[in-house]
Structure formats: C-alpha cells, structure tokens
Write a structure and sequence with these properties.
269 residues; alpha+beta; 5 helices; 10 strands; rod-shaped
C-alpha cells in the first residue's frame, strides 16, 4: 500500500497493464544455446524431409506403373478385327456356240425347201393344215376325236339305185369313220360335224348343197349306231345337185363351226 501510495498515477497504470498481459513462450535463459541452433536437430529434419520425399516418389511411381499396366491390359482385351477371307473367284467358262454358220445356213436352206414342198402340195386342189392332229388331204380328214376316210364318190341320177325317190341327181360319197375317243359318235353325226359340200353357181358364188337320202340301203339301219372307241365303221352320204357340170367341193373343219382344216374338189362323173 505504501509503495502504491508513493507511486505516481502513471507508474501505477503501467504496472497494472503489465500484470494483465498474456504470458508468451518460455525462452531459454540468456547465455544458453537454443535446440534450433543445434546440428542434430537440422540433421533430423533433413532425414525426415528426405524420407517423406522418397515415400511420395515411390507412391507416385507405383501409381503410374499400375495405370500403365491397366492400360496395356485394356488394349490386349480388345478383339482384333477379323480378317475378311476373300472368296475364290469362279472360273467363267466361255459358252460354246450352238451351231456353226455353215450349219445354220443348211438349216435355213432345208426350211426353204420344206416351205416350197408345202406350197406345191397346196396347189393340188387341197387346202391343208400344218397341224398333224387336224388336216384334210388325200381324201382323209383327221381331227382330235375321229378320222374320216373317203373311199368312193359317184353321181346317181334320179330313179337309179340309191336315188329311187329323188327328182334331182345326187353326189354319193362312201366313207369310213374311226372313233378315237370314248365319246358317243356315229357315222352320220361324225360326217355332218366335219364336212360340208359346196358348188359354184352360174354367177360364181359358192352355194351349200343340201343333204339327200341315204344312197346305200345297207347303211340305213347302221348309220346312227355308236362307234366304239378304236373301231372303224363304213357308211355313206349324198348331196342333191343343181348342176352336173361343175365339181363339188368338200370343206373339212375342226368340228361344228370349227376352223377350216382343208378342202378338196371332186369332179362330177
């Protein structure tokens, strides 16, 4: 108290402020050397730094090695693109020519000769069809169902045998009919289905002739009988004549109202 009383006001506040200050680090006493200045301290710090540096370097190197290994493994795992195998090319064999020019010429010449022969046959008062199943030539008509062959022709005057009741001359025809199918065919229907007879009039027009009575008495009872398949039967037919000076033309067709397959003229005698 006495000391405080003897102090001046400035000294009192100065001492009081010093008491309130925080205590700083304890420094070594003067005259003593600090451990920061000793050699072993810095040596230890150096070793620690070197050790830490080496560990970091080793870790970085190890990490890099692992990354390189992973990348190589990934590359190896990728599939290699498959190589396309080239297909062997097919050998192209040159086609052989079907015929030599000389052969082709020969065939053309033969065809021309055949055409000339056909035209020559057509001039013999008979129109022919080139189809082997349908034709009328040499007194024979051939169609798909039947064949008719003319065996005889004759002019019969009124009152003569075969034309006893007629008042006009008749053109009588004897023929054979063959049934090639299982159809119901008789000699009369077969003839009417295939043939018609015409004769030129005075003005030059073709006129259809009318069918007359049966000229042969032996066929009166059989002319409507069915012909069995494969059988051939004889019969006769006649046409009334208006003119005995002009020939009769027989025209054959492929059945009733069918296409014409041929024609042939028969003189009156």
């Amino acid at each position: 108290m006495n000391d405080n009383q003897n102090m001046t006001r400035g000294e009192f506040h100065s001492r009081h402020n010093k008491k309130k200050r925080k205590r700083g680090p304890i420094l070594p006493p003067k005259g003593s050397k600090s451990f920061l200045r000793k050699w072993w301290f810095w040596t230890l710090i150096g070793l620690i730094v070197i050790g830490l540096s080496g560990t970091g370097i080793n870790a970085a190197a190890k990490a890099r090695n692992q990354a390189d290994t992973t990348e190589k493994t990934h590359k190896v795992s990728k599939k290699k693109p498959e190589k396309k195998t080239a297909k062997p090319k097919k050998k192209v064999t040159p086609k052989k020519k079907s015929a030599k020019p000389e052969t082709a010429k020969d065939e053309t010449q033969n065809n021309q000769n055949n055409d000339q022969a056909t035209n020559s046959d057509a001039n013999n008062n008979s129109d022919q069809n080139t189809d082997s199943q349908y034709y009328f030539k040499d007194n024979k008509a051939v169609i798909h169902d039947l064949d008719i062959e003319i065996t005889q022709t004759k002019v019969i005057q009124p009152g003569d045998t075969g034309n006893e009741h007629g008042d006009k001359p008749i053109f009588a025809i004897w023929y054979k009919t063959t049934n090639k199918t299982d159809k119901d065919i008789n000699p009369t229907t077969a003839w009417v289905a295939v043939f018609k007879a015409t004769q030129k009039s005075d003005n030059g027009e073709e006129k259809d002739l009318e069918v007359a009575a049966q000229p042969d008495s032996k066929f009166v009872d059989t002319q409507l009988n069915t012909i069995n398949q494969g059988d051939t039967v004889e019969s006769a037919v006649a046409y009334a004549l208006d003119d005995t000076s002009k020939p009769v033309t027989l025209i054959a067709t492929k059945g009733v109202n069918g296409d014409t397959i041929g024609s042939q003229e028969y003189p009156i005698k």
